[in-house]
Amino acid sequence: MDHDLLLDLYRQMARIRRFEEEAARLYTERKIGGFLHLYIGQEAVGVGAISVLENCDFVWTAYRCHGQYLAKGGNSRAGMAELLGKATGCAQGRGGSMHFYDSSINFMGGWGIVGAHLPLAAGTAFASKYKGEKSVSICFLGDGAINQGAFHEALSLAALWKLPAIFIIENNYFAMGTPLTKTAATEDLSIRALAYPMARDSVDGHDIFAVRSSVHAAVQRAREQSLPTLIEAKTYRYRGHSMADPGTYRTKDEVEAKKQRDPIFLLAEKIKSTGLEDKISIIETEIEEEIQDAVRFAEESPFPSPETAHDYVYL
Amino acid sequence: MDTPTINSIFSDPGLTMREIQIRDAIKEAMSEEMRRDDRVFLMGEEVGSYNGAYKCSKGMLDEFGAKRVIDTPIAECGFTGVGIGAAMAGLRPIIEFMTFNFSLVAIDQILNTAAKALYMSAGQLRTPIVFRGAGGAAFQLGAQHTNSYESFYAYTPGLYVVAPSTPFDMKGLLKSSIRNDNPVVFIESELTYGLKGMVPEEEYIIPLGLADIKKEGSDITLISWSKMVHVTLEIAAELEKEGVSAEVIDLRTLRPLDKEAIFNSVSKTHRVAIIQEQHSVASYGAYLSHLISTEIFDELDAPICLVSSAESHFPYSKALEPYIMANKDMALPKIRAVLDRCL
Fold this sequence. Notes:
The complex is a heterodimer of chains A (315) and B (343).
Chain A: H1 3-28, H2 43-50, E1 58-61, H3 66-71, H4 76-83, E2 107-110, H5 117-131, E3 137-142, H6 149-160, E4 165-171, E5 174-175, E6 178-179, E7 199-204, H7 208-225, E8 229-234, H8 252-259, H9 263-273, H10 277-300
Parallel strand pairs in A: 1-2, 1-3, 3-4, 4-8, 7-8
Antiparallel strand pairs in A: 5-6
Chain B: E1 17-21, H1 22-36, E2 40-44, H2 60-64, E3 69-71, H3 76-88, E4 92-99, H4 107-114, H5 117-120, E5 130-135, H6 150-154, E6 160-162, H7 167-179, E7 184-189, E8 196-200, E9 212-215, E10 220-224, H8 228-241, E11 246-250, E12 253-255, H9 259-269, E13 272-279, H10 284-295, E14 305-309, H11 328-340
Parallel strand pairs in B: 2-3, 2-4, 4-5, 5-7, 6-7, 10-11, 10-13, 13-14
Antiparallel strand pairs in B: 1-8, 6-12, 9-11
Helix pairs in contact in B: 1-7, 3-4
């Protein structure tokens, strides 16, 4: 396997994890307000999927958006500054944790109403097709979103109009605190694709190579045949739904068992087996420098000035 | 090529005028803009092969093809969101709601996404999109098909809200709405699609945010928008017989509001009545009343009169409807009471 690729995937996942661990610390120091939904444990899904995209492709996700933002190429300084509500943030302090944006890299956010961003992702896919461009749109959603009307309407239209869109359910088994067993009558969430219909797959979301291979096939299908795909990636989040959630609806044993298949750990083992162990510590040092720099940058950045509070309501 | 801007039909006597219906004015506006800009397309229920539920897109499928005149399934939330996403990727969609009653199925997409995306992204995501269709009451359609939602939409910053009353205004303002880079809620009226009026052959646009004085007068200012402008003109005619000179302001655009036009008129007449089809509680008319009474209180010689539909739903039976829906007979006694007030 390509060594550079292995190391790059490792770097991407470890970078997201360290970014969020620092975010959690800043939240407990009350430097970050509002909601803070952490992606920790799910990194292989975002990184794996985005790693097979081109720059021109669109990425949409819900409010647990830091991971996809960083994976698409988002700047860690601008991300951390956004969490602190600073003028230098990726939404100049208008968005916060749930609403990261960077249109220069087609990272389309960062949306707070469960399921509502799926039609939007179908919309950028529609625009690509309308304009005759080859870009595809990829949309991440949680298992909690699959019972919303917007989910069904978006998939139905994507299939009907043959849109180059890929919907990835990050099944972490909990819609906030409600277990999947209470919200869906099946454990294979990809079978919902049969109704529209569209291609489907269900993959181990802890295995970044499984994610890559599934999404790669879907991207080809979208780019070459203009057809949508629904992928379920079975994953797990180690933290609560948000920092405000202690996660008492599941046992410590369950969480610990899931951590045994931590995606970053699994990839590290693979890298070590190829004799690249020393590269890991170099990468970790570089990530640490980047994240500490991002925190420093965010803390030192100014808050938006009051006279800008009304900006961006209208063009 | 610059399109001439005309604010009022009376302002340029050199135009070649002909009489057309509102539905034709709407079709002309959409068709002209689609010829001008490939990014503009029309999407909605029945807009293509059926030619529009109210025939506002008659012939457009033939001219522009199925790529740009797109029939949708009945899935307002879905196709509204698709339109918004497409706008964010650089297209300029026109989303037709067969009636605005159905827009509530998509209201999260309009209020929570389209209206807020520019702000939440600090200017990165732009949503040049028009949501248009029939608003307001028709006759005997029952409660679920009889709603005036201007106040709902005007409540939300980030949206433009346009509600014209004549073919001339409808065409010029719809063209401006399609060219605007913000999301625009463009409310037509089910009952007036067949209403005829003079519209120039020549291309023109009307800027958003400008009211129009539909009748000049000196004793009282009557403010209205959308279909109720026609009711208000009937009220003004009735008052004229009683020796009262009423000025009728058609707001045309609720967001942004032409405050200057209102204040100028009230400073002349010193009395105001607002005639709206909405219910009064938390309504646009109630906001106007607040605005006038706080910003030009000293100009008022009488309390502001707000004529609204009753605080009830709309019944089916024609025997009941006149008692609920704002109308001329309901308005006149209230307006006379304001005229009779002395300081």
